[in-house]
Design brief:
about 350 residues, mainly alpha, ABC transporter involved in vitamin B12 uptake, BtuC, globular
Length: about 350
Amino acid sequence: MHPFSAQLRNRAGLITVGLVVLSIASLVIAGMTGSVSIPLADMPGALRELLNGQPSSLAATLLDLRAGRAVTAFVTGASLSLAGMMMQALLRNPLADPYVLGVSSGASVGALAALLFMCAAWVVDAAAFAGAVAVSMLLYILARRDLRGGTAAEGGTALLLLTGVILSSACIALVTLMLSIAPDSRLRTMVFWLIGDLSGAPMRWLPWFVLAGSLIFALRSARSLNVMALHAEAAATLGIRVGALRKGLFFVSALLTASAVTNAGSVGFVGLIVPHACRFAFGPDHRVLVPAATLVGGAYLVLADTLARTIIAPQQLPVGVVTALVGTPVFLYQLHRLRK
């Protein structure tokens, strides 16, 4: 193995191990923190009780209540961050995020329609996922020629982005219509869903399977993404199947976005800020950027949700408010550093 390749591999391994430790620490902090805190010394015993399926102590009961929400926050944040990184690579636009093509707006239409008609919680989730998939398929039908193009031409990218923005605007109009006619008894729940809220999010296995499959695809495509980022016009001549790669990025990022939005509503700023922060800290190599963005996105949303449910306890804030308030100054700081 070339010494330089070995050095890159070792650096990627060290960064990944460090971020895995950070992710575990964020989950531990989320389990300990709340209206009633759990001492660190009591965490191992409480975790053993949970694994045995017999949470009898106060610490185990509290950890049981917090663990599912923290795990859901992690998979949601990781999915949004990975989707944002893929979307930025697909559109070659630093302002791209998981919501830019209207997938989340389609999920919002489905979810708010179900909430308006007072459907059960599983129907709301199913409607949100169906809305996201419907917009994704419509966008693909309208822009399939641009996605199948053999080159990552800026014109095709602009047309894809413009089509997504138009579909998003139509969905937002439908959302506004539903909010304007919704009765007061349902309006608060609908607004909380739009902002992004993890208070009622159940623990599911499906988002983890979606994240795992998407992560495998992104890691396998990392070298191709590096080539396409550096040599966009000549990527096809360098052996990159650009059309297949762009379609894969589109469908995988749309699936990740649909999964995350179904879990927690439209949580903003995670998919925009975290990939930029990781690129700023660790460099543009996607072999490092893919695992880093996934782990940092998960840890970031876990910590943001912990702050949302404790800052004015016992009242809880929507986690989307916290991610926006924290993310705005961070993003402005990154822009300032890049200008310097």
